[in-house]
Specification:
This protein is α/β, with parallel strands linked by helices. It contains 15 helices and 13 strands. The chain folds into 2 domains: 46-121 and 226-357, D-Maltodextrin-Binding Protein, domain 2 (3-Layer(aba) Sandwich); 126-220, D-Maltodextrin-Binding Protein, domain 2.
Length: 374
Amino acid sequence: MKLKLLLGVAAGLIALGAAHVFINVGWENFTRDIAQMFGRAERKQLTVGFLPVTCHLTCPVVDWTTRHSDSGSIYTSKRYSEFPTMCEDLTQGTLGAAFLNMPLAISLVQKNVGIKIVSLGHRDGSAIMVSAKSDIHEFKQLAGKKVLIPSRFSNQQLWLARLCKDNGMDLASMNLVTAPPPDMPALLETGQCDAYVVGEPHCARAEMAGTGRVLMQVKDSWPNFISCGLVVRDDVLADQHELIQELVDGIHGSGLWLEQGVDNRFAAAEVVGKYYYNQKPELLKFVLSKPVDRVRYDQLTPLKKDFEEIMALGVEVGMFKEPMPFEKYVDPSYSDHAPKVAIAMPPDDGKGIPPIEAVAPKAAQPAPAGAATK
């Protein structure tokens, strides 16, 4: 009789406890807390936009690394073919974070889009290409020539402006024309331009094919050049501070791992080329090794002095109407707090998952100047 009484009391207590959990705590919160106690917590996730270009390499590397981990958050990459759709998704809030051209990011802030630059994606990684048969061998010879640029809002155009100042030239002395970067090697080969300036791997494509020749690498005239970085919506920064800090930690850590040697770069090229970029790994390996400092993935903290130069050049060439304070469009605190520790990318296990593919609107209007692909 006593045993039945005790069992009845226990059952009642369990029922009351379950009712309390359901009403006051919530079953999902309760199971999440229990899972955390036993190391099986539901992992947070964030989708990050990128283009299949070498400057965005750390995005798929972080994706691969977090997917192949049993702990921490998962950062799923979303592949875009051009910047306009990415900018639209950032503006509308359907995308929380993305790798974006820095002047283009600044232009969005000037249009009152609530985003911040929180980390760089790379350093250097751009070149001026001329035909392999061209008689152009120095920058001054580009005066009067047709030169393709990826966008009116690109740091490649600012590089040209900087070179013009160094060589006593005017930017207007060149016939600058925007063109989609994937088309540039073919336009150069068919003689429809005299040169083009763009980020990798579109320079290496012409070089590997034997149709183009590097006139100048950006690293040799503008060391620590910046083109793209990670931008995050202000509302995501406010609501998901720890999630973004973990992402920036991953980007910086992956970059340090890439800088440890060519073997690591080649391992990343195999995975990223095969599963994320739909490019032959040999192309990425060429970019990442010839020379090895062609593009770098260290020193990824956005520095005020670098962006003040970008801003000044942008105002000078009419890219921006007026200067804007660094603090309005950059939050370097996430990069400042990123530990200086390399994070190794797991090797290719044959279990790659294709990235989410962004779909451009079917009836898309022509992109405005400055919103072209990288």
